[in-house]
Amino acid sequence: MPSAFYGLQISKTGLFASQKGLELVSNNVANSSTVGYTRQRLNLSSIPAPYGSGMLLNVERGMVGSGVSIDKIEQCRDYYLDIQFRSENCLLGEWAVKSEALYYIEDLFNITNEAGIDDALRKLFDSFEELSKAPESKEIRTLVQQNAIVFTDTMNYYSSQLEKLQNQQNDEIAVVVNQINSLISLIDDYNTQIVKYERSGDNANELRDKRNTALDTLSGLIDITYSENERGIISVNFGKNNECLIDANGKYLLALSKDLPDYYGNADKFYSITTSSGNIVDSAALNSGELKGYFDMRDGSGDTGIPFYMEQLDKLARGIVETFNLVHQNGFSYPDDSNGNVSVSGINFFDPAKITAKTISLDDAILSSVYNIAASSVEIVGDNNKGNNGNILEILTIAEKTDIDEIANIEQFLKSIVSNVAVQTSFVNGKLESQNVLINNILYKRESVSGVSLDEEMTNMIVFQKSYSAAARLITAFDEQLDTLINRTGLVGR
Amino acid sequence: MRVVQNMLTSSLLRNLHSNLNNLNKYQNQLSTNSRILRISDDPIGAVSSIQIKNDIKKNEQYSKNISDAQSWLNETESNLYELNNILIRMKELANQSANGTFTKQQRDAIKEEVLQMRDQLLDIVNTKFAGKYIFGGYNTTSAPFKINAGTVSYNSISDISAATPAEIDYENDQVRSFKLSPSTSFGVSIPGTKVVGCGSDNLFALFEGFVDALDTDVATPELVEYASKFSKAQDDVLSLISDVGGRQKRLEHINTRYENEFINLAELDEKTVGIDQAEVITYFRMAENTYNTALQVGARIIQRSLVDFLS
Questions:
Q1: Is B166 an interface residue toward A (CB < 8 Å)?
Q2: Does domain B50-267 have CATH number 1.20.1330.10?
Q3: pLDDT at position A414, please?
Q4: Hey, where are the domains in chain B?
Q5: List of chain B residues whose C-beta atoms are within 8 Å of the C-beta of residue A133
Q6: Which segments of A349-452 does DSSP mark as H helices, in order?
Q7: HSE on the CB side for B15, CA within 13 Å?
Q8: Is the ipTM of this complex over 0.90?
Q9: Taking residues A139-165, what's their average pLDDT?
Q10: What would the mean pLDDT of A463-470 be, rounded to a whole number?
Q11: Considering only residues 5 to 64 of chain A, which have any Cβ-Cβ distance to chain B shorter than 8 Å?
């Protein structure tokens, strides 16, 4: 036979459970748009009837259960979706980085760009065409000189833009590594806190949310694999060699040092990364992630990286300098006061020592006097041959040459650079787009499982509210019952 | 599938974003009349568009060269016609003077005219066009023909009457040429020695000889001979004129070809990067509608939940 207060005890558990339920609803609603929040659920179970011992044993049949117990506040989370998201997010990070860098390169080489290399080169050839019609004209010689300067300036500009972009990628590597390190420290901290919290048997839901958010962010930066042990500690590894970033013993930060040479061989310009065990982290050691994206753009000499385009421009510069000079040297200058009144051959058009896109410039002879542009194919004596345009006609054939070292034909080579940029950008953008769709689908599914539904919470609110009222009503009922028993029982004969 | 409010809002945002992207794309296509805004939109189209634009620009430059060449040849032609008229007059004078009844006075008048004609001949072969001597070969900066004490020099040849054909050939090679296509250089000038001739039969010598003949009152047959010499010289000039005419015809022909090519290239460019206005406007309208609808739907769904219906 249970105590007379048994019913009150049962109702009390009901009150508490409903109250907890309402609190949980309000927590869910309050966090309905918190990033990384996982909706929580109250796990209730009924408490079995007191399992009688001694005197009470089998005294009575039909024992009622002893109410409801709050077992756990649980997160609704699909861990498989987490794994999926993090492995895809990594690829998204890589493509996003590459797409952004290629966007700038594409801008440089875009056909709507009216100040491009091909335009500058065409204008140079056009002014040579004009000079072929008036080799004795100072104005047109000056036009050739000026257009040649525009061309070399354009090459210099392109090269410096690419160099700037490359340096930017280098800076980004440092930023990403610092980000990775701070995320590692954060996750390691959460590990410690979660273990402490969960020792008591509770779930550290909010801390887990934070740790999951940190893992999500980390997964975009570097390709990670992770596992959780029975105490709740997550260990994280990365890269192809599965190097450890966090384990039960603590964290292993990445070290950053500026000790690599840049594209032009200047020492200590580019960052290198080493793990705590001393292994080098570079593009080859990574599967994907923003870090790999930046590495590939900074170092990739395949057709994605910035160095590839810098090399192409250098080849172009070298080819143009050498070919123009070879032809120009055959011609003779025009005697004028500004060049000492001599008609000589062997003059360079471009400075032969400056054969990269970064340095290409006109030869000092051409810069100091436009009459040093060698238009004539023979020495100019007196007034004879002042109108000779033989060498200009030779220079004009350079545009049609198809056997220039490494670049074959200038125009075709420029076109192949543009086509390379276009194809590469289009490929990366396509990848990025499909990766975005994939990620969005996963996020959608994740939201579907973990997101707070206001309708659901409101329904729960009504349920808990009603069950609270009902439990309270029952307490009144038991109270009345006891009142009957205590105050109005045994009054016969009074 | 369990659907929560945040899914609605985030997908609404995503859709609005992609709708705006579409609107932006069509708007840019319409306002630039170009299908390819970035080369990655269509790598193949972009590269062929570069080729076409290059071809168009080359075409423009060669057309300019052609019109310059035409001006040179037109100037050359009109000068040669003038020379032709002089020679016709000379022939007349030679025939007149062969008339045995001419007095010394009349001969002197003829001689005077001949001397004037010779100066005119010098003017013609020393013609300047756009600041350049057109009959000087590669010498365009100073008068190619000079008369010094009766001796006529041409550029570096001090006496054309005594010039050997080898020397003249060297001068003859000096034909200024313009580039009219990647592979053709087109001669636009005629060296003065071709006009005047060389050796003892050059025009200046002919004029000089005629004057001498008039002076010395030689026998009539010799004066008649001069008439036939001038007639022959006129034939030479006429053949030069027809040579120039031939070149002008060729220029016209090449020019027509470039004009046609230009039209073809412009058409090809239009096909490669141009847009079909009707099509893009339709797409634009569709994108606009979708965007508006998405906005309206969004405004209605975002805040609707059970909260709104609980009292």
A1: no
A2: yes
A3: 92
A4: 50-267
A5: 65, 68, 178
A6: 364-368, 390-396, 410-450
A7: 17
A8: no
A9: 95
A10: 95
A11: 32-33
